[in-house]
């Protein structure tokens, strides 16, 4: 084989490796949840055999079943169903990426919080991350959050008097961390 043929073979192998790697990555990465937007009110008017009109309205955010019935016993009712929108929750990995530096991890037994001190602007949205196999109750100032085992809670803190230092407690452990909110 010539030198040029060997180069073409190696280039082809490299391109195939990149394509296979891209397909594998795409299959393994977490899928983002689908978010449904609320639509306008849907109005339906039905004319029954005795010429009476029945008007109904349903909103996209409800999942109630509405039956339009006629005064004639031989006719069948019309049923209108709207699907419930799916909840938009973040996977753990997506939440870690989204909240990055605004994440506080709590160790088993609430013995340690990481980071244990944070200064940020008001208002702030925090990811309270429980790395324990037991549920933990996290208290920030006067707000309390229960975090399931190996799960997280998104908390929005908004104080009116600034600057303020809020102490964080975890279960029975007091002041395991603090947040300084500034303007």
Structural summary, described in words:
The protein has 183 residues and is α+β, with helices and mostly antiparallel strands. Helices cover 19% and strands 38% of the residues. A five-stranded mixed beta sheet has the order 7-13-12-9-10, with no helix packed on it. The protein has a four-stranded mixed beta sheet with strand order 6-5-8-11, with helices on one face. It is elongated. The N and C termini lie far apart (71 Å). The relative contact order is 0.12.
CATH architecture of the largest domain: Sandwich
Distance between the termini: 71 Å
Residue stretches low in confidence (pLDDT < 50, at least 5 long) are 36-73
Using the coordinates shown, work out and report the CATH topology of the largest domain: Immunoglobulin-like
* Assigned CATH class of the largest domain: Mainly Beta
What characteristic shape results from the CA principal axes? elongated
Q: If you compute it from the alpha carbons, what radius of gyration comes out, rounded to the nearest whole angstrom?
A: 28 Å
Summarize the main sheet: 5 strands, mixed
């Amino acid at each position: 084989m010539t030198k040029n043929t060997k180069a073409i073979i190696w280039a082809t192998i490299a391109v195939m490796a990149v394509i296979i790697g891209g397909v594998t990555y795409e299959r393994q990465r977490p899928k983002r949840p689908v978010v449904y937007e609320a639509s306008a009110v849907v109005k339906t008017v039905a004319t029954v055999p005795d010429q009476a009109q029945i008007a109904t309205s349903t909103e996209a955010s409800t999942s109630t079943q509405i039956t339009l019935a006629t005064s004639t016993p031989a006719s069948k009712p019309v049923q209108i169903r709207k699907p419930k929108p799916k909840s938009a929750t973040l996977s753990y990995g997506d939440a870690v990426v989204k909240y990055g530096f605004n994440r506080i991890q709590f160790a088993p037994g609430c013995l340690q919080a990481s980071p244990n001190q944070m200064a940020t602007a008001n208002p702030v949205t925090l990811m309270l991350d429980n790395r324990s196999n037991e549920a933990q109750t996290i208290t920030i100032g006067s707000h309390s959050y229960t975090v399931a085992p190996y799960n997280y809670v998104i908390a929005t803190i908004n104080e009116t008097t600034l600057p303020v230092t809020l102490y964080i407690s975890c279960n029975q452990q007091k002041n395991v961390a603090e947040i300084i909110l500034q303007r």
